[in-house]
Amino acid sequence: MIAIIGGTGINKMLKLEREEKITTPYGKAKVMRDDNIVLLLRHGEKHNIPPHKINFRANIYALKMLGVERILAINSVGSLKEDIPPGSFLIPNDFMEFTKKREETFYNKRVVHIDLTHPFCPELTNILKEILDKNKFEYKEGIYICTEGPRFETKAEIRFYKTLGDVVGMTLYPEVVLARELEMCYVSLCNITNYACGISKNILTVEEVFETLKEMEEKILKIVDDFVNYKFPKRSCICKDAVKLGEIK
Length: 249
Prior knowledge:
The protein has helices at about 10-15, 55-65, 120-135, 155-160, 175-180, 205-230, 240-245; strands at about 1-5, 20-25, 25-35, 35-40, 70-80, 90-100, 140-145, 165-170, 185-195. By secondary structure, the protein is an alpha/beta fold. The chain is built from 7 helices and 9 strands. Strand 3 (about 25-35) and strand 4 form a beta hairpin. The chain has a 5-stranded mixed barrel with strand order 5-8-7-6-9. The longest helix has 23 residues, at about 205-230. It is globular.
């Protein structure tokens, strides 16, 4: 079972007609699905859930309940580097988070220390790179900085984040960690929609973000299509044993 976490445009291509509301110990989640693919719209069907109000635990737990083993997350981000232009892609190989109020673990009643030396599934990362290379889509690898939102960052914050990472967004964390805590494979495709505040010469607007996203939509849908139709081998990655390796007996 494969899950795609992303925006409403993806379902136009996947054409998933079965809607399911799933009750989890952490709240309710809603997905579109068929027998092999699950689509989760993290901001809701009408894009009315702000990043700091997303119920990440309910979302990820619902995917686990459905038998999902592999997740491709689509994340819109701002570039912290001049050589990572809007319209291109980045595959995160690490992250740093500066969130403040998010429920960020499933393990509050037992001691589990999840290893995040490689926070993104190495097997899925190689597959995603293979797909982008095959389609000749420009991309880089780098570090994702996750902020709380919903506001954009200040110029001073961006100067600081630029010394630590390559892109900045609001949705990757704690999604990536929660997936590892439930031993699911997770990889992110970051679409660069804008330069971050202070790097661009212009004031950042939401209109700019959505214009670039619209321009990238065809490429994103092609990547998703290739991903869901990929002939995945049996999992042999670090993700599937994450809890066993990190639990205090």
